[in-house]
Amino acid sequence: MSNFFGEMISIGVAFSWTATALLSEYGSKRLGNLTLNVLRMGLALLFSLALFWVVTGTPLPPVGSLQACGWMLLSGVVGYVIGDFCLFQCYIIIGSRFGQLFMTLAPLTAALLAWMALGQEMAPMSIVAMVVTLIGIGISVLGRGEHHKVSLKLPRNGVLFAVGAALCQGIGLVLSKIGMDHYDTAAMPGWMIPFSANFLRCIAGIVGFGLLLYFREGLRPLREALQDGRGMTIATATTIFGPFFGVGFSLMAVQYTSAGVASTLMALTPILILLPSKWLFHQKITWRSVLGAVISVLGVSLFFLG
């Protein structure tokens, strides 16, 4: 197997997440944040059951040890329930283009936590990478305000949701890495471990989002969404590119390379999303936004040198 297998998977995930970000922005505005996430988690579970049935002859995957289950469920709560709630909310407020720009903070979070929890080496270049990434984000979202002071060009609550999403994704990725290390590789093919792990994450996701939807809005939005043909099409496509193939392969990526490197390549989305967001949502793309996105991804790429 290629020495760069994990890196190649990560690049494919970046394209997958570009698609799911654009679809999620549209779907969140049409169906609502919680409703779309409940549908995504439910569909991801159904797709996973079908995959396991075809491959193994049984719909339920081997779930690994009790420790593995615990870590993956915790990863689902952090990465899906908290992280995706924040992410989809920021899509509604500031759009998927800026939301994905802030997601370049996720590799920084993953690298810091992996250094503290997993003992993965963190060289001085990593500090430079963090600074460069933050500069890139600043160029894109900061502008001149009154009296020549620097001001934030985006709604503050949207930025806070975006930062929260990035932090949760980075933490969730490392928690998944810890959980998958508890799987017995002799009990199942190595490629199946990420999908089995993601199955547990989706269980945590649908329980968490289901409870939030029930107590905040009731079940009426979900019933209405199930009768919305276009909305269900968007939810299905978002699931395929996001919590099914996208997240499944992102977990596979951290099996074959470090959490920081995988997150680095998956952070190409802010660049890949620029032109589609202009075509689909007629968002203005300025030289500052392009430069900021490039610098942010460049900053994340410095982890390769770290």
Proportion of strand residues: under 5%
Structural class assignment: mainly alpha
| Mean residue pLDDT | 85
Shape descriptor: globular
If helices are DSSP runs of H or I spanning 4 or more residues, what is the number of helices?
Answer: 13
Distance between the amino and carboxyl termini: 25 Å
Arrangement of strands in the largest sheet: 1-2
Layout of secondary structure:
Elements: H1 5-31, H2 33-56, H3 66-102, H4 105-117, H5 124-141, E1 142-144, E2 150-152, H6 156-180, H7 192-216, H8 220-226, H9 229-256, H10 259-266, H11 269-272, H12 274-281, H13 287-301
Antiparallel strand pairs: 1-2
Care to describe what's here?
There is one protein chain. By secondary structure, the chain is mostly helical. It has one domain. The protein is about 80% helix and about 0% strand. It contains 13 helices and two strands. The chain has helices spanning about 5-30, 35-55, 65-100, 105-115, 125-140, 155-180, 190-215, 220-225, 230-255, 260-265, 270, 275-280, 285-300; strands at about 140-145, 150. The protein has a two-stranded antiparallel ribbon. A hairpin with a 5-residue loop joins strand 1 (about 140-145) and strand 2 (about 150). Helix 9 (about 230-255) runs antiparallel to helix 10 (about 260-265). The longest helix has about 35 residues, at about 65-100. The chain is globular and about 55 Å long.
